[in-house]
Amino acid sequence: MTTKTTKRATKKVASSSKTMMNKAELKASIVKHLHCSLGTDENKANNHAWWKATCASVQEHVLEGLRKTQKSHYLNDTRAVHYFSAEFLMGRLMSNNLHNLGLFEQTEKALNELGVNLTDIMEEEPDMALGNGGLGRLAACFIDSLATLDLPAVGYGLHYEHGLFRQEIQNGEQIERPDSWRDYGNPWEICRPESIQDIPLFGYVETKYGENGRINKEWHPGHIVKGLPWDIPVVGYGGKTVNVLRLWQSQSSDYFNWDVFNAGGYVDAQTENVQAETISKVLYPNDETQAGKDLRLIQQYFFSACSLKDIIRRYKRAHGDDWSRFSEQVVIQLNDTHPAVAIPELMRILIDRAELDWDYAWSICSKTFAYTNHTLLPEALEKWPARMFERILPRHLEIIYEINRRFMDEVEAVWPGNNEIKRKLSIIEEGPDKMVRMGNLSVIGSFAVNGVAEIHSALVKKDLFPEFNHMWPSKLTNVTNGITPRRWLKACNPALSQLIDGKIGQDWPLNLDKLKGLAEFAEDAKFQKQFMKIKRDNKVQLAKEVMALTGVEIDPNAIFDVQIKRLHEYKRQHLNLLYIMALYRRLLENPDYDMHPRVFLFGAKAAPGYKLAKDIIFAINKVAEKINNDARVNHKLKVVFLPNYRVSLAEKMIPAADISEQISTAGKEASGTGNMKLSLNGALTVGTLDGANIEIAEEVGDENIFIFGLTVAEVEALDKKGYNPFDYYDNNRELKAVLDWLDSDYFTPGKPGALSSLKRSMLEGGDHYKVLADFTSYCEAQSLADKAYKEPERWAKMAILNTAHMGKFTSDRSIKDYVERIWKLDPCKVE
Ligand code: KOT
User: Fold this and answer.
1) CB–CB of 121/462 below 8 Å?
2) Where does 485-809 sit in CATH, by number?
3) pLDDT at site 182
4) GO molecular function: any one (predicted)?
5) In this model, does residue 383 exceed pLDDT 60?
6) DSSP letter string over 770-787?
7) Each residue's pLDDT tens digit, 312-339
8) What integer is the mean pLDDT of 766-794?
9) What is the per-residue pLDDT across 120-130, written as a single tens digit (0 to 9) for each?
10) 89 CA distance to ligand 1 centroid (A)?
């Protein structure tokens, strides 16, 4: 009996369920959509049309699942989590949806019989790049896991017209081009005009004295904009639960424009139009730096307010005006402080609209929100000028002052008379220009606060919020990040997935700890061969892609050394570059220098206003050009910068990586998630003891990872003592030589000094991120990696053990941690 149930369960995930279409029906459905939705036919259709027709067929299943899920959640009146995030970096959806529905193979065959290649048509899909990097991709992995675990959840965010810019490289430099992901429509989204929301902005607050002595505040907004929701169904693995990602698009509000229009202000009415629509026009391309612009705060308020209204509408449908159960039914997770204005917004609704008293409103509010911190970098911690806040959200600023006044009383009770601590914990930073600190607001207004890896959470407690941790010792906690193994192994590395299926069965995508079963084959010669053959095949594929994208030929027998992430000084792409230059020098000095041929592959976007980050991209490209064209070395060393790094490119690079560069300054990378994806696909990490690298090392064992560099404690000690980069420059000949090389015109003929800004940042600039201090140790780790690669069996064993020990890093585990420690949610099965 038990065996039977298990078998059936396994089958459910491996193949499409009975209600799904068989191959013949799929074929018919795709052709029907070709004819009836797209107005073309099999003979005329191009890949784009086939892609759209296939999406439409798949979407029929998706919507059926969505309907059933919503019905089930409604009937069960479930508690749900609402994941508020300014970013969801979804990438492409076709392959994911097919895999999660169990329809991939069926569809592949159906299309084949129609003379169409599924892989080819999937290339037609533009990435949904509504995020910058780690934070946005984490949100995407989390909503996949929430649906997979049958948890009632809604993702809330912004429906940006333009996602993260498209990167072109011209003469080595990054050029930003607009991303127009919806130019040809998005077949996965559904517009819901019936759920439009009106959002007030600007204006002033009127104080009214009520009969019962109650002071009422009335906000008279200066503008009203409309929020139009677009729903993107999120299919869980197994295809049962289909949750929703609801993204808000801003529109001008008719009712306001008509006033202006009727008064004869036709042109002004148009201006109003443009302004309102600007709100969701474009994603700010800054990763871990605050944009500090009016429009950014308006974006944050716009999507938070739309989402709260949506939640409240749904709550009221079930519970009317009885607010007593609100925080039992609703939990809101704030993905960093970007949606933190939702806290005063909920207070405003409860006090000004529902007319609850402050204490009752606050008791509801502070049981509803939880906050995830993603960074300790000071430049990323959001604070808004109080005057700007007041102009845009006058009532919210009043509420924030009141939250703060009451909180200061609590601080006084814990540290009587200590003004220093009050100054530090206050939501308002005093000074010539008062600032609203969104981090403090988030901690005060949330019942739980988490960091994203053990070390990061420890630093949040020790360095960022020590006094808050003293006041509320159980509020601050850790939830280590994770990644969805459906996208990041099953879908992106089908050959490895099938090999794994054959060895340990097919249920690892739902139970990633099962990968441990591979460990017993780590020394099995046959398995090693199979594993490394797949890696090599993936490298051949990537080499073709590299040729197509850059014209550079790379040898699949070389080590593929991959660093893919946003460009930031703390991530230290320039440390990698210095090592490449050192290897180049060694090869020039000694053509027989013993090293296994290596290709360094980069993918990285720099924030458009981040000068040094752009200079680093330029430097990588110039060094690459020189090396790749230098016949003395290019059989051993190549460097490739792949333009326009994004989710769909990551899906091609990760399965082909041998080495994963995770080389941030210790204490700076909160977690990292690319580290997990690469290791899961059998790449070995060269990394510092930072973020989740530490936990990866714990899982794979010190012998299966190349750890180097200063630890967090050592970085702190060095700073205390006084760090002087010249100590390293003056005492390391090789390091001095490569840094001086940057000043020459060797890499930029006729333009000496074109790469000097890098050198300056690491010397006169103070080398904030300790590149020089870690250089020697990094070179040693790289030599060890080279040595290991020259022993194919040893390397294969290490690679297999990396894949085998990644179980902890499934986002399903992260979500289960959130559920147990923070959200207290029950799954709701959908029949
Ligand atoms: C961006 C702007 C403001 C505040 C924080 C960020 C931020 C942080 N963006 N991405 N992060 C990254 O988040 C990832 C997911 O938690 C982490 O793995 C990574 O280390 C952060 O840098």
Assistant:
1) no
2) 3.40.50.2000
3) 97
4) 1,4-alpha-oligoglucan phosphorylase activity
5) yes
6) -HHHHHHHHHHHHHHHHH
7) 999 999 999 999 999 999 999 999 999 9
8) 99
9) 999 999 999 99
10) 12
Q: Find out whether the beta carbon of 450 lies less than 6 Å from any atom of ligand 1.
A: no
Site of tokens 């929703």 = 244
Measured from the CB, is residue 691 less than 6 Å from ligand 1? yes
> How confident is residue 272, by pLDDT bands cut at 50, 70 and 90?
low
Question: pLDDT digits over 215-233, tens only?
Answer: 899 999 999 999 999 999 9
Q: Decide if pLDDT at 195 tops 90.
A: yes
Output DSSP code: residue 590. -
Which residue, 764, 757, 778, is CA-closest to 613?
Answer: 757
Question: What are the distances in angstroms from CA 598 to CA 548, 655, 703, 710, 738?
Answer: 20, 17, 22, 26, 19
Phi-psi region of 753 (alpha: psi -120 to 50; beta: other; left: phi over 0): left
Comparison of pLDDT for 257 and 214, the residue scoring more: 214
Question: Exposed, middle or buried by CB within 10 Å (0-12, 13-18, 19+), for 358?
Answer: middle
Is 571 annotated as catalytic?
yes
669 C-alpha vs ligand 1 centroid, how far in Å? 8
0.90 surpassed by complex ipTM: yes
pLDDT at 167 over 70: yes
How many whole angstroms separate alpha carbon 169 and alpha carbon 406? 53
The residue annotated as part of the active site, out of 99, 437, 677, 770, is 677
| 663 CB near ligand 1 (under 6 Å) | no
CA atoms of 599 and 640, how far apart (whole Å): 7
Q: φ and ψ at 778, to 5 degrees?
A: -65, -45
Domain boundaries, the chain: 9-76+96-124, 77-92+127-481+816-823, 485-809
**The pLDDT value given to residue 21:** 82
Tell whether ligand 1 has an atom less than 6 A from the beta carbon of residue 674: no
Rounded average pLDDT over 384-401: 98
C-alpha 135 to ligand 1 mean position (Å): 5
Establish whether residue 135 lines the binding site of ligand 1, counting it when its CB lies within 6 angstroms of any ligand atom.
yes
Are 663 and 689 spatial neighbours (Cβ–Cβ below 8 Å)? no
Q: What class has domain 77-92+127-481+816-823?
A: alpha beta
Q: What is the rounded distance in angstroms from the CA atom of residue 126 to the CA atom of residue 178? A: 13
**Which of the residues 372, 673, 748, 810 is marked catalytic?**
673
| Residue 17 predicted with pLDDT over 80 | no
